[in-house]
Amino acid sequence: MSTQIPQQTEESSETETEPETASKGDERRTEKRRRAAEERERRQAEEAEKAAADDETVELKVFRYDPEVEGKQEPRFDTFHVPFTKGMTVLDALMYSRDTYDSSLTFRHSCRQAVCGSDAMFVNGGQKLACKTQIADLEQPIRVEPLPHADVRKDLVVDMEHFYEQMEAVEPYFQTNEFPDGELEEQRQTRENREKVKMSTRCIWCSACMSSCNIAAGDNEYLGPAAINKAYRFAMDEREGEDIKQKRLEIIEQEHGVWRCQTQFSCTEVCPKDIPLTEHIQELKREAVKNNLKFW
User: Which of 221, 199, 223, 224 has the alpha carbon at shortest distance from 276?
Assistant: First the structure.
């Protein structure tokens, strides 16, 4: 018995110390995370003070809204002071604000070369690509908002689903029933025809034109300038053939197609790729009229 009691006592002691050791480990990890958070907040505060004290700063007023967080469900504007550097874009300033001041600031961006179209925003009262818009060209304070006439998901992110549906409605892909003879023969396009459709191919699906269109704001079924421009790109391509062109004209000459356009040129003015959208819509109107003229 004398040899068993110490063993039981030792086992009991080990059992009792294991939770204590684990508890101390949890406390150390919690303390480490707390110190890291405090250090991060301290650095952010220093950056903010440095930016505020710097003469070369940019003042951003950014729209904020988060329907999933209590206390942020009421739309507001937050102000950020960003150190200015030569060549800085609105996207650069937003990324600095997110990385330095508030990691919850939400917006879309990808290529940063005005190609992907994901960062279209409403900057100082106009639709612009954030990655293309130079801070030096804007008056301060710079007001950044999500695209108008679209449901806001969070901060500067809007729901693009309706826009994509309108784009898909015009069947934005090449179709033809006429193929060249021979398997290796290319489907050629004349230089003149390529020049005709060249500008329309530059569309990057950013929805800036759709957001600027008063008709689209009031008519949810209107195809919109971007979709009609995409229809123009293929309807005017000589390689598709007359039968496919006829099909496309039937799509765009519907009640909520080209005839809803009131030639306000707002879409052309805001297009970041300088596509003559209004001109393309008017040309499709002329094609639709000629298509319906019958001489007998």
Answer: 199
Q: Is the dihedral of CA 253, 216, 150, 205 positive or negative?
A: positive
Helix (H, G, I), strand (E, B) or coil at 208: helix
Instruction: State the first-to-last Cα distance of the chain, in angstroms, to the nearest integer.
Output: 121
Helix (H) or strand (E) holding 288: helix 277-292
Round to whole Å and give the CA distance between 145 and 118: 14
C-alpha 158/C-alpha 202 separation (Å) is 22
Instruction: Write out the two tokens for 25.
Output: 């480990």
Give tens-digit pLDDT for 155-205. 999 999 999 999 999 999 988 877 766 666 778 889 999 999 999 999 999
Six-digit token string for 105: 């600031």
Would you say 90 and 123 are in contact if contact means Cβ atoms under 8 Å apart?
Answer: yes
147 three-state secondary structure: coil
State how far the Cα of 226 lies from the Cα of 261, in Å rounded to an integer: 12
Location of structure tokens 């080990």: 14
Q: Tell me which residue has tokens 């110390």.
A: 17
**Number of neighbouring beta carbons within 10 Å of residue 175:** 15
Pairing mode, if any, of strands 57-64 and 142-145?
parallel
Task: Summarize pLDDT for 34-77 with one digit per residue, the tens.
Answer: 888 788 778 777 766 665 555 689 999 999 999 998 888 999 99
**CA-closest candidate to residue 205, choices 286, 272, 134:** 272
d(CA 106, CA 211): 20
Helices then strands, counting H and E runs in the chain, come out as: 10, 7
